[in-house]
């Protein structure tokens, strides 16, 4: 069974990986043609919002305990699913 600290560290590592992927997409957006750039910006705004949500929830894990911690973990897992899908969709659309 995974400890709370291990879970938190795994989520932080995933968040850092997402930061790198989103930053790479930001660079692509900067270099894109104007009409494509607008689409990138809209998609990236959503990803940045989800990234901030994930970061906030990971910080909540530090102060949560018991049943509350388990609820926060479920929320973090849902956010990761959404973020992963969002990243995959943006990468697919703009490759």
- Tell me the helix content: over 70%
Strand content: under 5%
Poorly predicted residue ranges? none
| SSE-based structural type | mainly alpha
Average of per-residue pLDDT values: 86
Number of domains: 1
Instruction: Report the radius of gyration as a whole number of Å.
Output: 15 Å
β-strand number: 0
Q: Distance between the terminal alpha carbons, to the nearest Å?
A: 38 Å
Series of H and E elements: HHH
Silhouette: elongated
Oligomer: single chain
Number of helical segments?
3
Can you summarize the main beta sheet?
Answer: none
Task: Describe the structure in your own words.
This protein is mostly helical and 95 residues long. The protein has one domain. It has 3 helices and no strands. The termini are far apart.
Summarize the structure.
The chain is an all-alpha fold and 95 residues long. It has helices spanning 4-31, 34-63, 66-93. The protein is 91% helix and 0% strand.
Name some characteristics of this structure.
91% helix; single chain; 3 helices; 95 residues; mainly alpha; elongated
Lay out the secondary structure.
Blueprint: H1 4-31, H2 34-63, H3 66-93
């Amino acid at each position: 069974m995974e400890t709370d600290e291990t879970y938190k560290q795994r989520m932080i590592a995933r968040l850092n990986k997402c930061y790198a992927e989103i930053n790479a997409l930001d660079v692509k957006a900067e270099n894109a043609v104007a009409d494509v750039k607008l689409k990138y910006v809209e998609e990236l705004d959503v990803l940045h919002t989800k990234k901030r949500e994930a970061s906030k929830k990971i910080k909540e894990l530090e102060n949560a305990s018991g049943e509350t911690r388990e609820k926060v973990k479920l929320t973090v897992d849902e956010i990761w699913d959404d973020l992963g899908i969002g990243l995959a969709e943006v990468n697919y659309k703009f490759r």
